Amino acid sequence: MSSLRRTDLLALSNLRNDGRKPNEIRRMTVQMSPLTNASSTNGSALVQMGLTSVLCAVSGPIDCARRSDELSDRAVLEVNVRTAPFAPSSGDRRTANPTSDRRIIEQSSLIKNAMEASLMLHLFPKTRIILDITILADDGGRLSAAINACTCALVDAGLPMKDLVCSCSAGLVTGTGSTADGLEDIELMDLNQREISTYSNEASAVYMPVATMPQRGTVVLAQCESRLNSVDVFEKVLTAAMEGCQMVFHIMEACIRERTAKLLASKMGNTTVNVNFI
Amino acid sequence: MASLSLWQPKSHYRQTRKGKILQSTTELYLRDDLGLGYTIPSHSSAKRNNVSVTITGSATKISNAQNLLELLIPTYSKTDKTEKTRLVVVDTNVLLHNLDVLEHSSCAISNIVIPQTALLECRHRSFTAYNRVMDLLKSSTSKDDSSDKKRCAIFFPDCHHISTQIMAKKKMTVNEENDMRIRQVALYYGDKLAGSGVDVILLTDDKDCRKLALKEQKDALDDESLLYQPMSVREHILDLENEDHEISLSDLVAQFSTVVSTEQTKKQYYPAHLPQNELSIGVKSGKFFQGYIRAERGCHDKCYVTVRQGEDRVAVNIIGAKDINRAVDGDIVAIELNPVSKWIGSDNDVSVQKKVKHGAGIAEETAEPSIRDESNVMDEVEVPAEMKQDPEEISMRKPTGRVMGIIRRNFRTNYCGSIFTIDKSMLEEKQDDDISERDRIVNEYEVEHPDGSTTCVFFAVDARIPPVLIRTTQRERLLSKRILIAIDSWPSDSPYPLGHYVKTMGVTGVKDVETEVLLHEHNIPCDPFPAKVLACLPPEDYKIELEPGRIDLRHLPVLSIDPPGCQDIDDALHCIVLPNGNYQVGVHIADVTHYVKAGTAIDLEAANRSTSTYLVNKRLDMLPKLLTTDLCSLKGNVDRFAFSVLWEVTPEADIVDVQFKKSIIHSIAALTYQQAQGMIDQPDDETDIKASAVKRLNSLARILRKRRIDTGALTLASPEVKFVLDSESLNPTDVQAYTLYEANALVEEFMLFANVTVGKKILRHYPTLSVLRRHPAPNRSMFDSLISKAKCKGFSINIEDSKHLADSLDAAVLEEDPYFNKLLRILSTRCMSPAQYFCSGEYKPTDWHHYGLAAPVYTHFTSPIRRYADVCVHRLLAAAIGVEPLPVHLSSKSYLHDLAANMNRRHRSAQLAGRASVQLHTLIVFSGENGNKEEDAYVLDVDTNASSEPSFTVIVPRYGIEGRVRIPNITANDKNIVRDAEKHLISYKGKKIQVFDKVRVKIYVNVVQETQKELMIDLVSPVFGEQVDKTSCGEIEATLEKKRKASTKSSSGPTSAKKRKKNKSKK
C-alpha cells in the first residue's frame, strides 16, 4: 500500500528527513551551571538535543519538609517535571494542564528510578534531593534530554554518582524494500518529534527511550510502548539506543571536563569563571 | 561529528483545522559528505524456483567526479559518428508531465539526475507521478549490463547538501525558490564535470527558468562558456532525433500550449479559473463548494458534484462545457451554485436544455438513467425558502452549478482509446445537420503542422473523458489502433484538453486487444507476478503432510461442489451422522494463509490486487497459479490443508456446537453442480456415501434457507447467461441461459452459514478490528420508479424493510407471464446500494447490518483464493482460536481502513470489468453468423420525457442484453404521441408501449467505421406508424442511427453468471 511508504529518502540516499544518517544523534549541547546565581539551587544544567531543550536544577541535600518523609538509611529523591508555558506544543501533549499530565507524572517516576540507580543516596540519610526539571522546548525525546540534564546538574552540584546516566532513544522503521524480500528494518537513533509521530501510525514501527550507565554497561531504563514483534527487534533497537547513549556520554563527558577545567583554573586564580545566564 | 557541518532550524507556520496558527520548527542538517548524489544499482541473480530475480541494491554514494564518470552511459550519435555523454538534470514539471519521455528514452536520455527538491514537489503534486519516479530511480542499471535498456538515474539530496544551498531572496515564491535550487544542482554538476567532456543539461519547460539559468551563469562567470545548458524537453528531443533518426520520442512530449493555425489564435473558449487562494477562501466562507466532479455515465458534458451540507449530501448538476469549465471526471473542483431560477425543473429549464446543445462536447441526445456511485445522494432538494421568488412554485428542483476552479487535477496516468478521422469529401456532400458531432470535431480540430506532425483528435473508450487533442508524427500508423495517451493540460484557449501519445495497444476490434483495453480501463492489475512474489512460493517438491497444530480430518468423506471446469476450488463440505443421531457438518476452506504469510511480498501483492477478476475468456488471479490451482485448491483425492468450521447440528438444523480448526483433509470427490443435483434427485441409497451426504446437506440447507427467508433475506435476480466458447480460439459462438440447480443453492447456503458463524466469532474476539461486510439499507428514493412501475400492473411494493420487500416481491406474480416476477427482482436489485467491506471499529454496531441477507453480522470467509478479505478473516480467526498471533498490520485501524477501501474499489472494478468483458463477447457473438436475431424482450423503462425521441429500454432475457430502443417511424414532436409518465406508457394512434410489455426485437451489429461496431436493438412488433416505402424507411433509419451513434451504447450491463462465484460475491 502506497500510503505506508514514508521512508523513501532513507532508501534513496540513506538520509533521514532532517539530513541525518540513521545512526547519528541530533546536535547536542550541554551548558553547565546556567543558574549559578539562584541561591536555592546547588547545581544546574541546560541540555539541548536538537530542538528539545531541558533545564534541570538540583537542590539538596536539604532537610525534609516533614519528619515522616525522611528515610533513615538514605536520601529521598524528588523529581518534579514541568513544561514551560511557552514550549511549542508537542504531539503527545494531551491535557490543558501540563503539571497534572499523567505522562509527565509517569516520566518523573521513570527519571527518578533511572537517577536512583546511579546516585549514591545512602551517603545522605534523612535528607532530600530535589530535581526540578523544566522542559523548555520539546521536539521529541524529552525523557532522554531530561535524564541527561539531570546527570549534568547532579555533577554540577557535586553529588556523588556511580556513573553518568546517559539517555538516548532509538526506533525501528520498516524500510521500503531495497532487498529481495521487500522489507528491511532500519534502526534510527534519537528520533525527533516528526519521526515519532509519523512512524507511530505504522503498526510495525518501534520507539524506545533507553538510559544507560555507559562505563559500567548497565541499562537503567528502557521504556517501550510499541508492539515488539520479536526479541530480535528488541535487541536491535536496544543496541542502537546504547550506541546513542555512548555518543551522548562522550559529549557530556567533554562538557563536564571543560567546565571542571575552568573551575580548577579559576581556583588557581588564572581566569574567572564564565557565568552563563540564560 | 564532522559530517554534520551545519545545523539550521527552520520555522514554518501552519494553520490547524480549527483555524489556529501554529509555528512548527524543524531541524535541517547540512552535510558535506554527500558527494555527487546516490544511485541504486540493480543486478540480476538466480533465485529459488528458477526465477531470475533482479535485486535492487541499497543506495550507493557517488563520492567524486571520477566515480560518476564511470557510471554515466554514453550515447552514440549517428550524425557525428561520435559518442557523447549527457547528464540531464530535470525539474519538477518534467517529472510531472514528461515522465513518458524519461521512461521510454532509456537509450537516448540515459543519465538523469533527480534533485530532491523536484522529487518532493512532485510527490506533493501527484502521487502517481511520484511513484513512477521512484521506480525510475530504482531501475538504474550499470554500464556493463547487457540489456538494451540502460539507464543511470541519480538521486541528489540537494536539501541537505552544503554546496547547493541558496539564499532565497525575499518575496520569492516557493516555485521560484525551487527552480533556483534545481538550477543550483545543475550548476554544481556542471562545475564538477567541467572539462570532462560531459554535457550537463538542465531540462525545464519553464521559459523564465531557462532565461535565469543563462543570466545567472553569465553573472557568475566571466567566460562565455556555459557550465550547463538549459533546454526545453521538446528542444532536447529534437536534438536527439536529429542525431539518431531511429529515436522517435517527440510524440511522447507533453503539450502545454495550443498550436493553432493563425486565424483561430487566442480565442478564449472558457472563462479563466480563479486562483487557488481565492478558491480556498471561497470554500471556507461557504460561497463555493468543494467536491469530486463526476461525469454521468456515457457523456462528459453532464457532470455532478456531491456537496455536503450538514448531514445531507446533495448532487449538484453541472451541465455544458462552459459550466464544467475544463474539469475532467475525478478532479477536485470548487463550484458555485447557480441562482435558483436556473435550476433544473424551474421555468428557465429550457435555457438549461439549450445550453447543452450549445456546448462544445458531443451532445448526448439521450441520457441513461444515472446510477450514482454514492448511495444516499439526494437528487433533488427543496429550494431554500429565502431563495424562492414565488411561494407557489414547486419546491423540488435539481440544483445546478458551475466550476470556478480546479483544486486538484486527477488526470489519470493513461487513457485508452483511438484517433478518428473522416473522409472530408464525404462531409462536404452532407448537410450540416447530418454531420455527427464526432465528425464535426475531427473536421474542425485536426490540423497538420508544417513540421510533418499532425494534431489529431483522440476519443477515449471511457465516454466520460472529453476528446483530447494530441500531436503526433505517425498519424497514419495510429488510425484504427487502440492507443494510450496522457492528458497534459487544458488551457483556456483550447476547446479540448491537450495530450500526448504514450503507447499503441493493438488493432481496434481484435478480441485480445479489446480485452486488454477493458482491463486497462478498469484499472485491473494484469502484470505477471514479480519475481519477488514468486520467490515466496513453496519449493516445487513441497509435500503436504500433517503438521503439529492441525487436526487430521482425512478420514471424513469431504466433497466439493463447483461449476464444471473450476480449477480454484476453495470450499468443500462434509456431513456425517454422529452416534447420538445429530449431524456433523463441516465446511472446509482452503488454507491460503498457510502459504501466504502476513507481511511477505506475496501478501502485499495479494492485498493490492484484492480479488481475482473473472472475464469471459480469462481469469486474472489474485495469487500465483501454483497456489490458486494446485496447492490451495481443494481438488479431489489429494491431501490439502484447510481451515474447517465444524458444526454439530440436530437433523432440524439447530446448532448444538461449533468448532474452528486448522485441518488437513482429503476430498473424495470434486462434483459439478449437475452431478450433485443428480444425487439430490436420485432415490435414497444409504450405501452411497457421497449421495447420502449430499442429500443430508440438502435437507439441512432447505431448513437454513427457510429460516433465513423468514427473517427477511431477499432473493434478488440478475439476467444470467453464459457463453459457449470455441475450445481452441476461445471465441464465443453462442450465448446460453445459465441454469441454476438446487445444488447451487445448497453450496451457497452453507457458505453463508459459515460466513455468518465466522463473522460472529471474530467479532467476539476483536470487536474493533474485524473485517466485515455490510450492506446498507437502500435509499427509499431509488425505489420510487420501481414502485410506480409495479403499480401499473396492480402490485404494491412495500419497502419498509427487507422482510416486507421480500414478501411483496413474492406476491407480485403474473399468471400469464412467469418472467414478470424476475423482472421485478432484477429492477429491485438495481435499487440496492452495493455491499462493502469495512473494519468493525469504524461503524456503529447498528450499521454492520447486511440488508440483503438480513444478517446483523456478515463477513467473507469462504473464498480466500480469490478474495483478500477472506485472507484477513482467516488470520483473524486463527488468532481468535489461538493458533497464530494476530499480524501487527491487522491490529492497526488505519491500515484496515485503507485495506477495506482498496478491497471495495478492486471488487467493484473487477465486477465492472467482468461485465465489460461480457459485453465485448456479446458483440462478438452477434457480429458472427449469429447476427440479426429476432428475440422476445421486455420493456424495462419508457422514456416519457416530452422533448425526447420516443424510446424505451428493453431487456432480452435470452442473451442478457439490455438496450434502448427507439420507436421507429415517429419523430419527437409528432402531435399524436401520448406520453404518460404515471403509467410508464407511450401510445401512438392506438398502439402503445408500456413498462413490462413483451415486445419482439431485432438484435444486430451496426458497423460505424471499419473497426467500430455497436450492438443495436430495433423494434419489430408491435408496428408503429404507417408502413412506409421500404427503401425510404431504411434511409430514415440510417440517418437516425447516425444521429444516435455517438450516444447510444445499446448493450449496457448484461450481467453474466459465468460462475456461481459471482452469485455468492454479490451477497
Describe the structure.
The complex is a heterodimer of chains A (278) and B (1067). Chain A has 278 residues and is of the alpha+beta class. In chain A, 29% of the residues lie in helices and 25% in strands. Chain A is built from five helices and nine strands; from the N terminus they run H-E-E-E-E-H-E-H-E-E-H-E-E-H. Chain A has helices spanning 8-13, 102-116, 142-157, 193-199, 231-268; strands at 28-32, 43-49, 52-63, 76-83, 127-137, 166-174, 185-189, 206-213, 218-222. In chain A, the strands form two sheets. In chain A, strands 1-2-3-5-4 form a five-stranded mixed sheet. The radius of gyration of chain A is 20 Å and the shape is globular. In chain B, strands 7, 8, 9, 10, 11 and 12 form a six-stranded mixed sheet that branches. In chain B, strands 26, 27, 28, 29, 32 and 33 form a six-stranded mixed sheet that branches. In chain B, helix 15 packs antiparallel against helix 26, helix 20 (689-710) packs across helix 21 and helix 21 (742-765) packs across helix 25. At the A-B interface, helix 1 of A face strand 1, strand 2, strand 5, helix 5 and helix 17 of B.
